[in-house]
Amino acid sequence: MKSLKDILVDGSFSMDKEDLLCYGYDASGIDMAPAAVVWPKSTMDICKLMQFAWQNDIKVIPRGAGTGLTGGAVPVADSILLSFEKMNNILEIDTRNLNVVVEPGVINGDLQRALGQERYFYPPDPASLNTCTIGGNVAENAGGPRALKYGVTRDYVMQIEAVLPDGKLIQTGVRTKKSVVGYDLTRLLVGSEGTLAVITKIRLKVLPMPESVITILSAFGSLEQAGKAVSRIIADGIIPATMELMDRMTLIAVNKYKNIGFPEDIEAMLLIEIDGNSRAIQADADKVANICNGFQGKVKIAEDPASRELLWEARRAVSPALYKISPTKINEDVVVPVTKVSELLTGLQGISEAHSVPIACFGHAGDGNIHVNIMTDKNDKKKYEEAEKLVRKVFKLTLDLGGSISGEHGIGLTKSKYIDMELNSINLDIMRGIKRLFDTKDILNPGKIFPGTDVH
Q1: What does the alpha-carbon distance between residue 426 and residue 95 come to, in Å, rounded to a whole number?
Q2: Predicted TM-score (pTM) of this structure
Q3: Pick from 456, 455, 439: which is nearest to 195 by CA?
Q4: CA distance 48 to 123
Q5: Position 118 pLDDT exceeds 50
């Protein structure tokens, strides 16, 4: 039987213990060392590797930057971890046709900066944009603050080049704005969490930068009032580029982490951005300020780019900042209709108070996507078990409000046991059938999304 040495050049793979440990986990905190780590440099490298894995029944786990929070990039025993950090080239920037072509290892923030030099931008902007990769974003259908106005990753993926589990190469999608030829395999691959094919090249839509941006901060005395303000802004026909929420616990954590100076005697803060034509957005900004004032919100305007960037630096620091107030957090990313945001926030507050477990909330309030952080301590077994029990309560509240248990983090390992709360057996059987059609041997990222498979 061939070995990796027969199909890959030296330096493109490793079985050293140190490398196996470094690539054996992601941001979920789950870990399992693979048997080998491979760093491909080309599509052909991946074709060769997948042919080898298929012939020898070896599991392969694709990995971007490991920023995923649901364990989607965690290896299984005796598997090959496929890391894309050496496939990180921006291959084409075509501003005339408003698209770019990238390899999967390109960092989201690097693409943003390259486009910014041309006065264009790529809208999906996860909080981890300076670390996460485009390939990982596609695998998880990542969103971000701008999703409210501009949509999520799937709205920008035009074409995908990918390698099937048996090593065959496929191309999906088109480079034109329209096409209805056959099934939409591109959208099927977006959000499939690396379980159907290995993505090797991506064509993305991009947009011209807006002429101007206004950033508004509004502080509220209650979560309910903040949630109602969000709903009213949307109902009044104003679609901000972003509308982010941070609750009191989150603000305290950010102050400890970054010394920003956010007020801590409030219950919630909204960070709202309006972009577009300078004259038009000023009128919208005035309307937003009036709406927030109507719900007892205290409004401030970020008056210069440096102030605006400081606010966004604080927002992107929220997730690590929460560790300043608790050693462990169970992070869920539920989403509800925007008209139900206020009910979700007050319901979460009720769960927290009823069980005496702190819950910190922040996230993309404008599209109903709230990051729910159950604060606990993994080293205290009893406390952690109590906190874990609240996950199901959070999901039930979300589903009762017409929502979904994951807005952008995916299912991976951590949410697989809850997936049947949202999807019935018919839907799950269809999805498992699609997985079998692509991967009859179940070698590509096995054990993810669907319950009942031991990851070890």
Answers
A1: 44
A2: 0.95
A3: 439
A4: 34
A5: yes
